[in-house]
Structures are given as C-alpha cells and as structure tokens.
Amino acid sequence: MFSFIKKKLGWGQPEKADPADKATAPEASPAPAPAAPSPAAAPASASAFGLASAPSPVAWVPQAQDDTQAKPTDRRSWLDRLKSGLRKTGSSIAQVFTGTRIDDALYEELEAALLMADAGVAATEHLLADLKQRVKDTKATDPAAVKALLADGIAELLKPLEQSLQIGQHTPTVIMVAGVNGAGKTTTIGKLTRHLSDHGAQVLLAAADTFRAAAREQLAVWADRNRVQIVSQEGGDPAAVTFDAVTAGKARGCDVVIADTAGRLATQIHLMDELKKVKRVIGKAMDSAPHEVLLVVDGNTGQNALTQVKAFDDALGLTGLVVTKLDGTAKGGVLAAIALWSRQRGTPVPVYFIGVGEGLEDLQTFNAREFARALLE
C-alpha cells in the first residue's frame, strides 16, 4: 500500500526544533503515539499493506509488494466486493461476448457498452482500435479469447496509474487532500491515517475544512480513534491552519502531515483560488511541500470525475488520486478515460487507492490487472 523509506533507526526521530517553530506551533490535541507492533505481528501487518519486511533494523528501503501475494484470503474477499460493485458494468460488457462470431456487430455492441460504462468517447475509440489490432495479431476467433484481449488492453492502458504512495523521503511528508463535497475525502484521510499509524508512522492531521463544523468533528473522531494528533481551529483561515500544522509537524518530528481541505466544486473559481492559497502557504511553512496533492474522486460521478480531475490538476498540479464508492452505482469505465488523459498529460497521475465501502479494509491499493478483470466479469 505504501512505499516507505527509512533513513534512520525507527520512524520520525525528531530533529532539534527551531525555537521559532516552538513559538509558532499551535497547541494540538495530544494523543499517545501508536504502539509499535510486536515482532511476531510486524511481518503480517507489513505484508498486509504491501510492505516488505526490514532486512536490517538500522537502515532499509522496503519496496512495495504485490498485495495479491499478501493475505490472499483477505484480498480475494475485497476483490469479490470490487467485482460486485462493478457488476452492472461488467455484465453489460460481458454480454457482448456471449455470441459465436467476431464481426462488426460485436464491435458496435462493445462500443455502446463501453460508452455506457462511462469510458468516454476518446477512451472507447482507443480501446476498440487496440482490441482490433490485438485480434488481428493473434488471429483470435473465439469471443472468449477476444474478451481476454480486451482485458489485456484495459490493463495496459491503466498500468501507468498503478504506483505506490511514497512516504519517508521528507520529514514530515506533507499530503494535501482535496475533493468535492461528498466524495469521501475525510473518511479516506481517516483510513490512510490508520494504515500509516499501524505501520509505526507518527501522523498529524490538519483540519483545514474550517467552514464545516461537521468536517472538523469527523476528522477529530478519526484522530482520536487512530490515536494521532490534530491541529484544528474553529472558523479560522484554512491556510493558517495548514501553516500551523506543518510547522508543528516539523517541530515535533512527525513523519506525515495530512491536510484536509474544504470540499468544493471545480467550477467555483473563488474557492479553487483559495485552495491554491493553501498550497502556497504550505510551501512557505516547508520548502518543497506539499509533497503529495491528492484528489478524492467519487466513482459514481462518471465522466464528471474526469472533469474534476482536469480542473483540480490545472489549479493544484495533482500527484495522485483516490477513487471511492466503487460499491455503489459506479460504472468504472471512467478510469480508462482518466488513464488516457493522464497519458496525454505526459506525466501519469497515479490512482494510489480505490475504495468499495466504508470499512477500513475497503480502501486498497489499485492494481490495473485486477481492476480490468473485475470490470469484465
């Protein structure tokens, strides 16, 4: 799930704090540091979230593992929920391949099914052209074989989006999280915090959604549940809260600072400008920060999800995505549209995680091959 880089013994050893930092750092709600896992439990916990075990207690650079090889029973259970969430899409595409002939009628039906799956015109045309070339190259005549070739094409298109979230290259690693109202942003932050804490990271949360009391309260609940610190301010300036949080994170030697920002529509220019301000102020609090700018996208919004990604990327320069609520009416094809746009962008915007429910275990790393198979079943 994460790729960690540890340069010292243990996580988040604090450096000598600048007196100025101590002066400006706000009083955060303290909480006990998360307990380190026992030696017997550590390997299982690490592999559960795609981390390699440490060969040395002094210095190590673990690489993300294939989550399908860790706790296969749990992963299969989660994949079943993903398939169930995408069943409406999968069944409509799978029906295209129930015949016995590979002809123009099949391709026309497949085009309609992909469009209905929210793949969009450009991605649909790309996948159809790619599939026809694969059929020609392999001389496939069986519809089942053509369906497998389509899965290969989708997986290849989505593969650049399959990357690990990098934690530990900076102390703290500052993550700014954005998204429209109702996308599941604050819940996603809570789940990420839990996973990070379970791996020994010292996390500090910034409740920068200062306009909505419920958002601050929800984030405070997650902070209490995960036993991490939180910087919060009622009715304050979001940029000021994030500045205080990053300053506090530096002074306290935190490993990760996660800033929850106010939900907003991409069409609200003045609110998007405020997000830009938050990002600039984070940069003033710490050079090179934020190190990650994540957008949480509701998988049920179809092609509107691509519109959101483009708008937030123009405003903030996104470094990654989290796609949530794939257990609802989500059609899933929009990921193909995002992947094609990402390819044209030049630098991929990876999908770090996808979610299929409210449970902690329902947020998992994105795997292109798994998703392609789930989409066609």
Automatic annotation (TrEMBL):
Stated name of the protein: Signal recognition particle receptor FtsY
Record's keyword annotation contains Cell inner membrane: no
Xref: HAMAP family: FtsY (MF_00920)
Matching PROSITE patterns: SRP54
Top-level taxon of the source organism: Bacteria
Disordered, as annotated region: 1-48
Catalytic activity reported: GTP + H2O = GDP + phosphate + H(+)
Xref: InterPro entries: AAA+_ATPase, P-loop_NTPase, Signal_recog_particl_SRP54_hlx, SR_rcpt_FtsY, SRP/SRP_N, SRP54_GTPase_dom, SRP54_N_sf
Source organism of this protein record: Aquabacterium lacunae
This protein's GO CC annotations: cytoplasm; plasma membrane
EC class of the enzyme, as a word: hydrolase
Assembly notes: Part of the signal recognition particle protein translocation system, which is composed of SRP and FtsY. SRP is a ribonucleoprotein composed of Ffh and a 4.5S RNA molecule.
One GO BP annotation of this record: SRP-dependent cotranslational protein targeting to membrane
Every SRP54-type proteins GTP-binding domain range: 350-363
Similarity comment text for this entry: Belongs to the GTP-binding SRP family. FtsY subfamily.
Residues annotated for GTP binding in this entry: 179-186, 260-264, 324-327
Gene3D superfamilies according to UniProt: P-loop containing nucleotide triphosphate hydrolases, Signal recognition particle SRP54, nucleotide-binding domain
